[in-house]
Design a protein that fits this description.
Layout: H1 3-15, H2 34-40, E1 43-55, E2 64-76, E3 82-88, E4 101-109, E5 112-114, E6 122-123, H3 128-135, E7 143-150, E8 162-167, E9 170-175, E10 181-186, E11 189-194, E12 200-201, E13 215-217, E14 222-229
Parallel strand pairs: 3-5, 7-14
Antiparallel strand pairs: 1-2, 1-4, 2-3, 4-5, 4-6, 7-10, 8-9, 8-11, 11-13, 12-14
Amino acid sequence: MQMKSFVRILILLLCSPLASVTALAYCPVPEIRANGEFFKSDVVLTGTVISQRYTNPEGEDAGGWYYEMRAAKVLKGPIQKEFTVYTEDASARFPLEDGHDYLLFAYRAHGRLEIYGCGNSAPLSKASESLRQIQTISVTPDGEIEGWIAEETTGVHLSGIHVVVRGGSQVYRAVTDKDGWFHFRVPKGQYEVDFSNHEYYLNEGDVFWYDPKRFTVHAGETAAVQMVSVRHPDRR
C-alpha cells in the first residue's frame, strides 16, 4: 500500500466513527446485527447491479469500483430508482457482480455512498435474516443490548462475569454465559457500561460499532458492545 493511502486510512480511523470499516482489514467489534447497522447507515436498499466501472488510484484516493444499482426497495434513505455506490480497492472492499441482487448498507463518505465488507451487506439470497430483523424494527417498542467479554489470552473462563450497564437512573445487570455473551432488553435511550466492578476493561486499541463508554439504543435496535476479561488463564 502506498504511503499516502496508508496515512489517509490512519487519519480516517482516528477521526470518523465508522472509519474503521475502511481501515485495512480491521472491522469494528463485535459483529453488528442488521437491526443495529440499519441505524448507523445512511442508505439501506435492495437492488440489482446494472453497471460498474473501476477508477485507478489518484492522489490520496486508493482507487476502487463504482456500481450503478437499480433499487428494488429502499429501506432507509431517499426514495429513488437508481443509486451509485462505491467500494475502495482495499482489504475492507465489498465487490459486486453485474446482474446480481444485493442488500446493501451504505455510508456517506468523501461525497459518495460507500459500501464495505464489514457488517451485513450481502447477496440478497443470503440476506433473509437481515431483512427479517429490519422488518421488525417498526413494531418493536424496546431495544436490546448484547455483548461479549473477550479473553485477553487463551485459557480464560468467560462464564459468570457480572456486567453492569447504566442508562440514566436505571441500572441493568447481566451474567455472561459459557462463551462470555450477555443480553437484555432496554428502553430506547443513552447507555454506558459500568467498569467499577473491575471484572472487565475496555481495550482502547479496539474500534467499536458501539462505544461502551456511551452509546445510543433506538427502539428495535440491538446494540452490541465488547470488553475484555481481567481473569488470568487457567493454569491447572
